[in-house]
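Researcher: Here's my situation. A collaborator sent me these components and asked whether they could plausibly form a single complex. I don't have experimental data yet, so a predicted model of the whole assembly would be a useful starting point for our discussion.
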Amino acid sequence: MSSEFTPQEGSCSCYSNTYTINAKPVGRFICHCTICQEYTGQAYNDVTVLLKSDVSQLNLIRTKFRRWKLPPNISRGLCTRCNKPSIEMAVGGNLILVPTSNYPDVTALPEPSMHLFYNRRVEDIDDDLPKYNGFVQSQAMMVKALAQGLYKRVSKR
Ligand SMILES: [Zn+2]
């Protein structure tokens, strides 16, 4: 697959909030934690991770950010109109999380690499991806995968 990424305009489901994604995400995870369930209104959150500099032209006037208790440093934005996920910020805004449902072309994204908080799943998932349980394990494996994703990007230069 080519490393080129055609910029996409991400948005919430009603297009009130928009932003331009200029780079291929450094990671993609499927999170089954109860907060992600509440946040998305779905059984899990299929979400991509980007660097702050990968996302431009943020138009988030209709986004309301909220923090749940765990994980502590993710600020999750919901659209005030459609009430669906808009965008999420982590590590003081240096990482940006965009649910895959907010991309117009999901085929350009990397495949998900793992399931997180699988012990909280609503339904069993029948795939070959690794499945991690609980906060400590999920966080550790996610950080490791992000580091690998970042390294891949840096080493390409
Ligand atoms: Zn909306």
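Model: Some features of this prediction you could bring to your collaborator: Residues 18 and 59 are 5 Å apart (CA to CA). The longest helix spans residues 134-156.
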